[in-house]
Design goal:
The protein is mainly beta. It is 9% helix and 23% strand.
């Protein structure tokens, strides 16, 4: 393998019968490794998490992959794990990884993120699409650059943030996009991200906007377009400027009247 010491790109995509990625420490200059759509891949050697020059790691659509090695990749810019339907937990982040700006996790079964997730210090945009129960790490409150969060498909947030930590830190997330199925999910999400200014719930199956919205002092804009099951709005944030509720065909007349009585820019249909 010494022949390949200077290799920078390794692509083994679409290898139908590949079950294992072995030791790659003999490829220290790798900048990109891709093994997407390897449908039989089960295990990955730990060495892949310690490639100091690696910038792009693409493991998308590896259906049978049940776990991912811990990562200490100081040069990494892109990490692609979407479509790994067997993954239940996001990998441990062993050291500061400041070059990743965006992570998109679609069609995975990831339910849990490690406390070390906050080592992704440059992360600004996080998209999580899954199912079942989602457990966020309290360390997400310490991620000062995280600006936008999108969560869809999950039916429940497992817990509220630790009171002691949340009294010390407050997430800087400004834009929150939720495909919320119930108002309990929304209530807990707004405790996690208390400084959010723009909230998009478009297309959600939520029936009630809870009274707790009155406590969201930073919230200025709400998008409810296409929330066809939304019936009742119980609370309006005190500093709300704009609200859009197009195609909310189940919204009660009393809720519409309450909105129209507010001094804000609104759209109803």
């Amino acid at each position: 393998m010494q022949t390949f010491e200077k290799m920078k790109i390794l692509k083994i995509d679409n290898c139908e019968y590949l079950t294992n990625i072995s030791d790659v420490s003999c490829l220290p200059n790798l900048e990109k490794i891709s093994f997407k759509n390897c449908k039989s891949l089960i295990t990955i050697h730990d060495s892949i998490g310690f490639l100091s020059q690696l910038q792009i790691l693409n493991a998308s659509n590896c259906d049978k992959l049940l776990s991912f090695p811990s990562l200490k990749l100081k040069s990494i810019r892109k990490l692609k794990l979407s479509g790994c339907t067997g993954l239940k937990k996001f990998p441990e982040i062993l050291g500061k990884m400041e070059n990743i700006k965006k992570i998109i996790l679609r069609k995975t079964d990831i339910e849990e993120f490690p406390f070390s997730f906050n080592n992704l210090t440059g992360l600004t945009d996080l998209t999580i699409e899954g199912c079942g129960i989602l457990k966020l790490p309290t360390s997400i409150l310490m991620m000062s650059n995280l600006f936008e969060v999108t969560v869809s498909g999950y039916s429940q947030l497992l817990s509220k943030p630790n009171d002691k930590l949340s009294s010390t830190f407050s997430a800087n997330v400004n834009v929150l996009r939720l495909n919320a199925n119930n108002h309990e999910f929304l209530t807990i999400a707004l405790i996690w991200f208390s400084n959010v200014e723009t909230l998009y719930l478009s297309g959600s199956n939520i029936k009630i906007l809870p009274e707790s919205l009155k406590n969201c002092l930073s919230l200025k804009c709400i998008g409810l377009d296409g929330c066809e099951t939304l019936e009742e709005i119980r609370g309006i944030p005190p500093n709300l400027i704009a609200l859009s509720a197009l195609w909310c065909k189940s919204l009660t007349s009393s809720s519409k009247s309450m909105l129209m009585s507010q001094v804000l820019l609104f759209y109803l249909a």
